[in-house]
Write a structure and sequence with these properties.
alpha/beta; six-stranded parallel β-sheet; 14 strands
Length: 381
């Protein structure tokens, strides 16, 4: 399993570790090839990661020769595995699958969202110059150019013999549909949901309060959520997360002391504890959310979700919550209508988790994908 970690570990990293952990528990022998994104890169590293790939290719070849895997599972290659890593995988002839955890194959910023609206201007690599011009990756043209160069190298390797993954793994059927819309017929896509690394302990006590967990960003609908909460009857509110709209959360905390709790940086365990205590979780992204890890965490804790239905949310939540529009007025109505009856959805929320998101269900699905990929490779041989 190949993964490049981020400077700040997030839900993607947790999902990768969870998959490796549950596969091992199921009896598979798993080696996780993990690299971390450096704080700064030398010129030689930049050239290696984005252009030549010689150093990373050697490292990947050595790991493959040493471990002799039946299958390689690629998670994130950006930036330090890059073209060299995928080249070595291709040259090995060993079948590989690749999980897409965002939309970076068709969007430099990975979320198809720009200037407070959906954006699909760069779904083909030939059109990604617009993303560079707009500085879509980290608001930087040089950084956007780098990720485009990385993408060009990866695409080149995928066009060669043995370069295409046996399967692309999408996080949801909604994500699968979006990938197929962007690149119709190009890849065989399988769906496998994310999972938690450790089985959570449910809170059997009566729940209280509303909770928001996630990045405080426009594409997450955070500004609409704050405005909607103020228009509602204002149940006790806990906000967990940080981002460009942090000042708005801090201002709300000052204006409603004792009613609002704001936790910018806490451990994952503490965040899960706060979710378990809350009566209702709110997730209202404005973009096509490919999965939404806070949904997984909320359902696992038996906390119903008030959600916008964008992307995978309706698919995942089912009868474990209620769908609303991503507007302040809809948020206010949703809180006023559903907060008082949220306790009635506790069992439905947890049942949804047990049925499709538990480690047992998700690991079985991943093993099915692996076996299919290995079997397909043997038939082609």
């Amino acid at each position: 399993m190949v993964h490049n970690d981020y400077r700040v570990a997030g839900g993607e990293t947790k999902s990768v570790y969870a998959e490796a952990s549950h596969l091992r528990a199921a009896g598979a022998e798993v080696r996780l090839l993990l690299r971390s994104t450096p704080e700064s890169l030398s010129s030689l590293q930049v050239v290696d990661y984005l252009v030549t790939g010689r150093g990373t290719s050697r490292a990947m070849h050595d790991a493959i020769d040493d471990f002799q895997p039946d299958l390689i599972h690629v998670q994130n290659l950006w930036p330090s595995w890059g073209v060299g890593g995928i080249r070595a995988i291709r040259q090995s002839g060993i079948p590989y699958v690749q999980t897409l955890r965002n939309y970076r194959w068709s969007c430099l910023s990975a979320n198809h969202f720009r200037e407070k609206a959906e954006c699909h201007a760069c779904v083909k690599s030939a059109t990604a110059w617009r993303g560079v011009l707009n500085g879509c990756y980290r608001d930087s043209r040089p950084a956007s150019s780098a990720i485009l160069l990385h993408d060009i190298g990866i695409r080149s390797e995928r066009r060669k013999e043995s370069g295409k993954p046996r399967f692309v793994i999408a996080l949801s059927h909604a994500m699968k549909d979006r990938i197929e819309l962007n690149e119709p017929g190009k890849y065989e896509i399988r769906v496998k949901y994310n999972c938690l690394e450790e089985e959570p302990t449910r809170n059997s006590a009566e729940k209280s309060g509303l909770i928001w967990v996630g990045r405080l960003e426009p594409e997450k609908g955070f500004h609409h959520f704050l405005s909607g909460w103020e228009k509602s009857h204002r149940p006790p509110l806990t906000i967990v997360g940080s981002g460009s709209l942090r000042a708005e959360a801090e201002d709300l905390l000052k204006r409603y002391p004792g009613l609002v709790q704001f936790c910018a940086e806490i451990s994952h365990g503490e965040a899960m504890r706060l979710i378990a205590k809350s009566r209702l979780s709110v997730v209202i992204p404005l973009w096509e959310e490919p999965f939404g890890r806070v949904v997984l965490e909320s359902l696992a804790m038996g906390t119903p979700v008030l959600h916008s239905g964008r992307g995978a949310l309706t698919e995942l939540i089912g009868d474990g919550g209620w769908q609303i529009a991503s507007t302040a007025q809809a948020v206010a109505r949703g809180i006023d209508e559903h907060y008082s009856i949220a306790e009635s959805k506790r069992d439905s929320a947890r049942r949804r988790y047990d049925d499709i998101l538990s480690p047992e269900a998700t690991t079985l699905r991943l093993q099915e994908i692996y076996n299919e990929a290995i079997g397909a490779n043997r038939k082609s041989d």
